[in-house]
């Protein structure tokens, strides 16, 4: 699907890829991806049966990060390397708008991982549910002077997910949030073009 076709689709018909990563640290220049989860959506429908999750083998490991994601070096022993799941990731991103929480963090890691394989990715179509939530609050006349964390947004929509800080659980939480946000944005008669602008803090 061409970019123009994606941008001209209605929110209910557009296709999305909800992404979450677990990494060995916070610096994409020296840390690496060790888990990836992707959940497809079409409009308001979460296509959970078609989700993708994989641990990713890394030659680097920061033991301090275990407290955040619960992944130990032994868990990665038989995991595929990033290059082994690249095709799956690319297929699942094709023609879809990328959705995440702190999306630029994940994009930076993906770009660097792809660059090592000499694959150039632009990631021009993405939204961040935190930015969307801020946009929705501003639309309702409410000031936003703080960073909306994932747990706070989940509470807003009465969403409860077990196993937080697991890539798949966090991706599903993000998908549930995005589903609720889309419903509100549809009520606001938001176009898909504006959705992307709102989700990147360029509008509203």
What does this structure look like?
With 204 residues, the protein is an alpha/beta fold. The protein has helices at residues 3-8, 66-69, 82-93, 103-116, 129-139, 150-156, 167-187, 192-198; strands at residues 15-23, 33-42, 45-46, 52-55, 97-100, 126-128. Strand 2 and strand 3 (45-46) form a beta hairpin. The longest helix is centred in the C-terminal third of the chain and has 21 residues, at 167-187.
Summarize the structure.
By secondary structure, this protein is an alpha/beta fold. Helices cover 40% and strands 16% of the residues. The longest helix is centred in the last third of the chain and has 21 residues, at 167-187.
Tell me the structural class. alpha/beta
Report, as a whole number of angstroms, the end-to-end distance.
Answer: 28 Å
The amount of beta strand, in percent, is 15-25%
Largest sheet: 6 strands, mixed
Query: Could you give me the name of the CATH homologous superfamily?
Result: Ribonuclease H-like superfamily/Ribonuclease H
Overall geometry: globular
Named CATH topology: Nucleotidyltransferase, domain 5
What is the C-alpha radius of gyration, as a whole number of Å?
Answer: 17 Å
């Amino acid at each position: 699907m061409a970019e123009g076709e994606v941008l001209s689709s209605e929110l209910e018909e557009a296709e999305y890829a909800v992404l979450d990563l677990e990494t060995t640290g916070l610096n994409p220049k020296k840390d690496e991806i060790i888990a990836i989860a992707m959940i497809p959506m079409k409009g308001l429908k979460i296509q959970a049966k078609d989700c993708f999750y994989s641990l990713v083998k890394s030659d680097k490991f920061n033991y301090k990060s275990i407290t955040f994601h619960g992944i130990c070096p032994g868990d990665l022993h038989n995991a595929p390397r990033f290059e082994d799941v690249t095709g799956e990731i690319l297929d699942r991103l094709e023609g879809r708008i990328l959705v995440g929480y702190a999306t630029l963090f994940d994009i930076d890691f993906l770009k660097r991982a792809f660059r090592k394989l000499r694959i150039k990715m632009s990631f021009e179509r993405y939204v961040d549910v935190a930015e969307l939530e801020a946009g929705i609050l501003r639309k309702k006349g409410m000031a936003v002077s703080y960073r909306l964390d994932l747990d706070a947004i989940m509470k807003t929509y009465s969403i409860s997910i077990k196993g937080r800080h697991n890539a798949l659980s966090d991706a599903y939480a993000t998908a549930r949030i995005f589903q609720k946000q889309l419903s509100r944005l549809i009520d606001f008669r938001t176009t898909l073009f504006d959705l992307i602008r709102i989700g990147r803090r360029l509008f509203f």
